[in-house]
Automatic annotation (TrEMBL), chain A:
<protein>
    <submittedName>
        <fullName>Putative aldouronate transport system permease protein</fullName>
    </submittedName>
</protein>
<dbReference type="Pfam" id="PF00528">
    <property type="entry name" value="BPD_transp_1"/>
</dbReference>
<dbReference type="InterPro" id="IPR035906">
    <property type="entry name" value="MetI-like_sf"/>
</dbReference>
<comment type="similarity">
    <text>Belongs to the binding-protein-dependent transport system permease family.</text>
</comment>
<keyword id="KW-1133">Transmembrane helix</keyword>
<dbReference type="InterPro" id="IPR050809">
    <property type="entry name" value="UgpAE/MalFG_permease"/>
</dbReference>
<feature type="transmembrane region" description="Helical">
    <location>
        <begin position="209"/>
        <end position="230"/>
    </location>
</feature>
<dbReference type="InterPro" id="IPR000515">
    <property type="entry name" value="MetI-like"/>
</dbReference>
<keyword id="KW-0812">Transmembrane</keyword>
UniProtKB/TrEMBL annotation, chain B:
<protein>
    <submittedName>
        <fullName>Multiple sugar transport system permease protein/putative aldouronate transport system permease protein</fullName>
    </submittedName>
</protein>
<feature type="transmembrane region" description="Helical">
    <location>
        <begin position="263"/>
        <end position="280"/>
    </location>
</feature>
<feature type="transmembrane region" description="Helical">
    <location>
        <begin position="143"/>
        <end position="164"/>
    </location>
</feature>
<feature type="domain" description="ABC transmembrane type-1">
    <location>
        <begin position="75"/>
        <end position="280"/>
    </location>
</feature>
<feature type="transmembrane region" description="Helical">
    <location>
        <begin position="185"/>
        <end position="210"/>
    </location>
</feature>
<dbReference type="Pfam" id="PF00528">
    <property type="entry name" value="BPD_transp_1"/>
</dbReference>
<keyword id="KW-0472">Membrane</keyword>
<feature type="transmembrane region" description="Helical">
    <location>
        <begin position="44"/>
        <end position="62"/>
    </location>
</feature>
<comment type="similarity">
    <text>Belongs to the binding-protein-dependent transport system permease family.</text>
</comment>
């Protein structure tokens, strides 16, 4: 009885956070109705004309939408795959280091780029790959003419995926390294006594210890296939690379906040939100079924 | 550990040390390069002559920044939003995590709240409805748009909640037997037991606030309400939007940018992060692992 008396305190504790949640997450959800209207800011949500699915039909008729969806998928899937594999290889190599101080040094340095914003990082990336950047300076030593890397639609996606992997590989390796600390050193010893060489130790002891983590992370990243990374692309792209670099999020931003096509932008945003939500739901179910993973 | 000293194994070790060394250089060099450009002679930097070390020496960009009131204004806004945003979010997060960490028999409606939170974490109304909502609250150009606009950090609530749930039940029971109510249990027992986790979460939230530029961009109508990252984003990456940009024009635009000054600004914006990085490092590894904690 006494414990149930605590409930009003629990509600009181939840109150400020719930008000915050309602104001900035739940109220905006009603704005989704705009996607089914020809929204007019002067008339508001209640009086604007209802158009059913017109905005969605129009959106898919636009050539831009096909380009943008393709780009988003290619960039996001590229990032997902490489952000699983590169940190995995890195963690295994780090695990093979025998000098512990060197290991610590490597770890300290490679985590750093994760904590710098894409605003800072893209400035640096442009400083390096830009027309007056260091890559062109070095090309100059070999008599190669300076290249406009940042304005080359042919390499933009590779550049985006590559710089993202570079920025995050250290940080993404943390979870693998943690899994490796759980490996019993006796396993290595026993295998070595049985005559296993270096490669066989990695193949039969290190890798199996990481399989569950890789699979789990892979499944959970399913929800990101429409997330190509707004901050990064927005800070690195320019009109010359729209054909390969424009993604859903940047498109929604330009449609909505620069061209003020509120309804169309909301429809495009809703398309992304719904698909991502379904994919995340599926990934959580899979992770729960096969790895016993729950978020709460 | 058994040492494997065949020739192949030794060669692998050496190759491995070199490869990881190159990765380390790849992470440090870009920062070093930015610093070098910022203190180089302007003409050398603009001609793209800097590679491994500064060419010439000039502190002119840093002197210009000292006299740039917009830069300091943006810096100050970033500090305010980081301090207010982190403090506020941390308090709300802890207050939400505690009741949600109660078993359902103690808090009947727990699961309903839980589902609402998870739904809000996974689904959003999208950019435009969010922007129009904040505009309706008349928060544009206000520091509160930056402090509150990002919404409840639901993931952090769940993280702290999971940590609370893994604390021994006896802690709670003993305190209740001694006559403590929920508020004193939370503030006198649970919070003191969770300092490392709360530190990790506080650091994550403050890194978010310090690095965030987009809300600063769309929720500000005037340049004087930009936080630092938005200010830098505007001056460095300011390429006009329009579909008829030619490569020639793009080249011209790169020529126009003041490389030494921009590098100096970027470098100064990095300094606070470099200063807190050692503290961050102490806590973020444990923070990440908490995300993986289950019952």
């Amino acid at each position: 009885m006494r414990k149930l008396g605590h409930q009003k305190h629990y509600y009181l504790m939840l109150l400020p956070g719930m008000v915050w949640l309602v104001m900035f997450s739940i109220v905006p959800m009603f704005g989704i109705l705009m996607a089914f209207q020809n929204y007019n800011p002067g008339m508001g949500l209640l009086k604007s004309e209802w158009v059913g699915l017109e905005n969605f039909k129009y959106m898919f008729q636009l050539n831009d939408s096909k380009t943008v969806i393709t780009n988003t998928l290619i960039i996001a899937v590229g990032k997902i795959v490489l952000n699983l594999i590169v940190p995995l290889v890195f963690a295994i190599l780090l695990n093979e280091l025998r000098n512990l101080r060197y290991k610590k040094l490597v770890q300290t340095v490679v985590y750093l780029p994760h904590f710098l914003s894409w605003v800072i990082m893209s400035t640096i990336v442009i400083g390096i790959f830009g027309y007056y950047g260091v890559v062109n300076t070095v090309f100059g030593y070999f008599g190669v003419d300076p290249q406009l890397f940042m304005a080359d639609a042919g390499i933009f996606r590779q550049l985006i995926v590559g710089t993202d992997v570079w920025k995050e590989f250290g940080y993404n390796a943390i979870i693998y390294l943690a899994a490796l600390t759980g490996v019993n050193p006796n396993l290595y010893e026993a295998a070595a006594i049985d005559g296993a060489n270096r490669w066989q130790l990695i193949r039969h002891v290190t890798l199996p210890a990481l399989t569950t983590t890789v699979v789990l992370l892979g499944v959970l990243s399913l929800g990101s296939v429409l997330n190509a990374g707004f901050d990064q692309v927005y800070n690195l792209y320019n009109p010359l690379v729209y054909s390969t670099g424009d993604i859903l999020d940047t498109w929604v931003y330009r449609l909505g906040l620069q061209n003020l096509q509120f309804s169309l932008a909301t429809a495009a945003g809703l398309f992304k939100s719904v698909i991502s939500f379904v994919l995340i739901y599926i990934s959580y179910r899979l992770a729960y079924r096969y790895a016993d993973y729950t978020i709460f | 550990m058994v040492r494997n000293t065949t020739l192949g194994s030794r060669a692998f070790d050496i190759a491995n040390i070199i490869l990881l060394g190159l990765l380390v250089i790849s992470c440090i060099y870009p920062l070093w390069y930015t610093f070098c450009v910022s203190i180089s002679e302007k003409s050398a930097a603009n001609a793209g002559l800097v590679t491994l070390y500064p060419i010439g020496f000039s502190l002119t960009p840093y002197k210009e920044i000292i006299n740039d009131s917009m830069f300091f204004n943006a810096f100050w806004i970033s500090i305010q939003r980081t301090v207010l945003g982190t403090g506020f979010a941390l308090l709300m997060t802890v207050l939400m995590a505690y009741p949600l960490a109660r078993p359902q028999k103690d808090f009947k409606t727990r699961n309903i709240f839980m589902w609402i939170l998870v739904f809000c974490m996974l689904f959003s109304g999208g950019l435009i409805p969010w922007y129009l909502t904040i505009q309706n609250y008349h928060l544009i150009d206000s520091i509160w748009a930056l402090v509150l606009g990002g919404g409840v950090p639901v993931f952090d609530v769940i993280l702290i909640m999971n940590f609370f749930r893994n604390l021994p039940k006896e802690l709670n029971e003993a305190a209740v037997v001694d006559g403590a109510g929920p508020w004193s249990v939370l503030f006198r027992v649970y919070i003191p037991c969770s300092i490392p986790v709360l530190a990790a979460v506080a650091l994550f939230i403050s890194v978010y606030h310090w690095n965030e530029f987009f809300n600063g961009l769309v929720l500000s109508n005037t340049q004087s309400s930009y936080p630092l990252q938005t200010y830098i984003q505007q001056l460095v990456v300011n390429i006009p939007v329009g579909t008829n940009l030619t490569p020639e024009q793009y080249k011209k635009l790169s020529e126009l940018s003041n490389r030494t000054l921009n590098s100096a600004k970027v470098f100064i914006a990095m300094v606070p992060m470099l200063i807190v990085y050692p503290f961050l490092q102490k806590y973020f590894v444990s923070g990440i692992m908490l995300g993986a904690v289950k019952e």
